[in-house]
Amino acid sequence: MSGARRLPFTFDAAALKSDLERIGPREWVPHFNQQYYEGAWSGVALRSTGGHTAQLYADPSKPKSYADTPALAKCRHIREALGAFECPLETVRLLKLAPGSRIREHSDFDLGERFGVVRVHVPVLTNPAVEFSLGGESVLMREGESWYLDLSLPHRVDNRGTTDRVHLVVDCVVNDWVRSVIR
Predict the structure, then answer these.
(1) Residue 41 to residues 96, 98, 158, 173: CA-CA distances in angstroms?
(2) Lowest mean pLDDT among 62-76, 141-155, 161-175
(3) Do 117 and 90 form a contact (C-beta atoms < 8 A)?
(4) Could you tell me if 74 and 22 are in contact, meaning their C-beta atoms sit under 8 angstroms apart?
(5) Rounded CA gap, 102 and 15, in Å?
(6) How many domains, the chain?
(7) Which residues pair with 134 in a beta bridge?
(8) Burial of 102 by CB count in 10 Å (0-12 exposed, 13-18 middle, 19+ buried)?
(9) 57 lies in which domain range?
(10) CATH code at position 143
């Protein structure tokens, strides 16, 4: 199986973008893994451990304590999009990479079908100068599409554009439905 697979459902990108306007600037917090990036990489938790908006870290030691955050309550279209996922959800975040920023190559060793949790990316805001590399191959993701990414493979992102790149990032517990859409 390839490390990236476009999933068979898309979302209304304009509607998802309208939800971004409901997120205040103070709700965006710097990504916790500061050695992995250059520039500005921030996020807002929409579902997290304990339901805290500033809790970006997906804490594997507390797998049953995930809850929706107040930020998700403000995002009607994102809530509707999450309804398409026929599986238990762990963390759900909006992750923003500012223009001129980069996420250095790294691997998330605890993600992938064999670990019981897969990550899906839904580009909400992007530009043609964003380069996403997974396992040495370029993955072009367009706004509103949904993508399974095996992030246990080496991956990096460069935003060489002049606008933010914002993805809705959904961690899904593997079940029969997940297996059917990622294969």
Answers:
(1) 6, 6, 11, 25
(2) 62-76
(3) yes
(4) yes
(5) 27
(6) 1
(7) 137, 155
(8) middle
(9) 4-182
(10) 2.60.120.330
